[in-house]
Amino acid sequence: MSESQVIEAVRAPAGTAPPGVFRPLLQALAAASVRHALLRDDPLALDAVRDLDLLVHPKDVTATFTVLDEAGFRLKRDRRLRRKWVFVRYRDGRFDVVDLHGACVQNGLEYMDAALAIERAEPTAGIPCLAREDAFLHLLLHNLIGKRHLQAKHLDRLRELQAIGLDPARLRLQTARYGLDGIVATARHEFATLVQDTDACRTLRTAACRALWRRPANIWGGFCYRWGDRLRVQRRPVVLALLGPDGSGKTSFADALQAHLDDSPFQPGRVYMGSWGHDLLPMRQARRLVPPQVSHTRLLLRRLGMPAAVSTEEEAALVERRNPVRLMAAAIRYTLKGAGFHTAIAVEMTYRYVRHIARSRRPVVISDRWVHDLEFRQGKVPFVHGQRTRGLWYRLFPAPDAILYLTTPYDLVEKRKPQLDRRQFETMDAVFRTILAPQHPLLLVSDAPPEAMVRAFLTQNWERILERCNRRA
Predict the structure, then answer these.
(1) Residues with Cβ < 8 Å from 353, sequence gap 6 or more?
(2) What would the pLDDT profile of 23-50 be if each residue is shown by its tens digit?
């Protein structure tokens, strides 16, 4: 991340809506002769909209894809959705999202004729919007089927449409085909009750779903929506693992990244995958078996005159323990303890991985640390033995999709964690860089505010993350 990128990221406030985000897109659709209409958004307040719901004519879907691609939007795949597509773009420090509808579908159930709704659309401020009858049907069924109650943010609009007056004949053109005549009539007559009584909403929702399930296409659409995300071979989300020495800003960066993605289609999960804390299983007794810094097996081999590389600490221990019998007993004891410790760690990390990553339905999971944290005893001092065993464990454990390696000058680290001395920090940095070299991590210099770093990181890498998400979908 270059200095100029950080400066530009700081200048672009996160979450602010630059003017003219969606208006040029709607103009481009009109220029391409794409028949379209806004579903729920206010055409007079488009500058404040971050998620645009757009209905297009079923025959103009392909042309719409082309216009969106030229505008920088990329498709985010979701196998649950039927004739609905999510397009996303990251620009000016925020995500812009277009929910593109090629049919009026909610939870996989088609409830209204999109082509008829487009033909009857009425312009407001030069932008096509649904006619009164279609707008009422859409808001009513969108809330009943999808939300199981009438959302407060849509009540004023529904009341307004009721008060203006709806043409029964125009309503019937939409509802008769889907068997919703009686349901919509009941909703209009008992609207005041539906606003206050969630049980009445559920009852009416059940009746609406029964009517819609009679259509064969809705049977398949409802099945895909319910089970499409679960009946798949690749369930794992895209995993972004944050690694780096203590004080490099991993947790702060993870917090900022999660907050930045929360309002986007990525909606990340969060997990701690370090080896020295946040246990989900009872690990207190097992952690007492942690191997010492010296290897008694090496000491025994050296004492018996066999070639074995030893560290400075092991040289000192070799002088104190000259009795080969005692060294053999210590080697056996610590070998058994080490095997028990690493087995317990493997069980704990596997359980954590299965629970928070493999079974996660989130498209992205942000991991604070990864299994490479086992390289340091108690997360602080690097082990001088057992590299081959740990290397095998790193290869067997599922690799993350990307490793973000955070590093920073020690002068900044000293302000964050004064208890961490320079030598310890530089040692951790050197060890991490060595063991992570085969993984080709993405280096991030954390010398800027976390929010600015996140914006600069996403500006360069959001399309790669989206591509990985689409592979899994």
Answers:
(1) 273, 397, 398
(2) 999 999 999 999 999 998 889 888 888 8
Could you tell me which residues come within 8 angstroms of residue 194 by beta carbon, excluding any fewer than 6 positions away? Answer: 150, 187, 200, 201, 204
Question: Between the CA of residue 35 and those of 29, 123, 129, what are the distances in Å?
Answer: 8, 12, 11
As given in the structure block, the two tokens for residue 130 are 């649904």
Q: What is the DSSP string of 242-296?
A: EE-STTS-HHHHHHHHHHHHHTSTT--EEEE--SSS--SS--HHHHTT---SS-H
pLDDT at residue 47, as a whole number: 83
54, 99 Cβ separation under 8 angstroms: yes
Q: Which residue has the tokens 């895909």?
A: 224
pLDDT digits (tens, 9 = 90+) for 149-205: 999 999 999 999 988 889 999 999 999 999 999 999 999 999 999 999 999 999 999
Pairing of strands 402-407, 238-243: parallel
What is the C-alpha to C-alpha distance for residues 54 and 96, in angstroms, rounded to an integer? 13
Tell me if 455 sits within 8 A of 254, measured CB to CB. no
The C-alpha angle 247, 252, 255, rounded to 5 degrees, equals 150
Q: What rounded mean pLDDT belongs to the chain?
A: 87
At 83, list the tokens.
Answer: 């004739």
Classify 46 as helix, strand or coil.
helix
Domains within the chain, CATH numbers bracketed: 3-227 (3.30.460.40), 238-472 (3.40.50.300)
Q: How far, in Å, CA of 25 to CA of 42, rounded?
A: 15
Cα end-to-end span (Å), the chain: 30
| Residue 312, pLDDT score | 63
Q: How many CA atoms lie within 13 A of 193 on its CB side?
A: 11
**By the 8 A CB rule, do 98 and 52 touch?**
yes
Picking from 39, 28, 24, the residue whose alpha carbon sits closest to that of residue 65 is 28
CA-to-CA distance for 80 and 280, rounded, in angstroms? 32
